[in-house]
Amino acid sequence: MHFKRFTILALVVALSLIVAACGGGNDEEASGDEQNADLPMEPDISFTEIDRTGLEADTVVATYEGGEITGDQLASYLGFHGFVNPSVQVNEAESRQELLKFLILQETVADEVASTEWAEQKAEELWDEINSVYTEDQTEEAYEKLHTSEEEIKDHLVGYYLMESYFREQIDEDEALAFYEDIQEQITTASVRHILVATEEQQPDGSMEEIRTEEEAKQLADELYADLQEGADFAELAAEHTDDPGSKDNGGLYEDVAVGQWVPEFKQAALEQDIDEIGEPVKTDFGYHIIRVEDRTVTPFEEIEDNVYGQLANDKIYDYYSNTLPDKIEEINIQVEEADADDQSEDAQSEDE
User: Fold this and answer.
1) Quick check: 73 and 111 in contact, CB under 8 A?
2) Which residue, 128, 136, 189, 194, is most buried by CB atoms nearer than 10 A?
3) Of 3.40.50.12710, 3.10.50.40, 3.40.190.10, 1.10.10.10, which CATH number belongs to 186-298?
4) Which stretches in the chain have pLDDT values below 50?
5) Entry pTM
6) Backbone torsions φ then ψ of 24, nearest 5 degrees
């Protein structure tokens, strides 16, 4: 069990997958056969009923520096997580222990935030996303099984974002800009025209068969490069000679592609070649590529600033959870079941091996 499984980021991803599976929502304006064709099937979502044994208001399940968590507080928090991420095993002792630690983390920092405005706004936005996923019947089922309500869920969302706000406030502009520079590959798209001179070709049965030696491929690539330098039309030459079926019919062009998905040598050319420069043949595992970068766009910092600060805050949350929180926790009164503990021991032994 790892902390990152329980971050709100993971919960949003889970919700996004549900939305994708549903086809993005219902079209209430459609009607008749058209409506039946367009509407996705209702998502198959099942909520786990919370076992509240030992989670009474007068039961203290944890004490930490400056406070304590009672059973009913944990039950409410479990209901929240069970609502926003139905896959969380809210009745498993190990899951409860990890979620309890995360709740303690929130409680230790949330009161340090001066303003709640940002947290309340973000919580409302996420609540709207949740409402776009669940049907009314599913929401009512969740409230009943998880012993929660709209008000409680919103309160917990605000609590999370207050915690994130606390760690965001620790990030200065230099740190954010440095992170932005580090992720250039992930936020750069390029339109690239290329000719692939391959050494192998995939056969109908999936196997690879040599079609020319590496020396032959290099020689042909050099000849095509020379033709381009003398003014040959790149698109025509690509349509005639490239061994890349994915771009052959488009004159060798891949348009507005995230450069991070390409193999390292091709990616480097896409990132570093001057615009409209025809680079010398580049060798990859596929053969030799002649590349011309026709356009390259880096997402401006202003457009992803919120995401940058969010990722850095998440990193700081994880660091705090791993290195600071243990010293603040005085006692946890939820025991991991013996079977779970044995499984953990076996997992740890497997990792060591």
Assistant:
1) no
2) 194
3) 3.10.50.40
4) 1-41, 336-353
5) 0.72
6) 95, 5
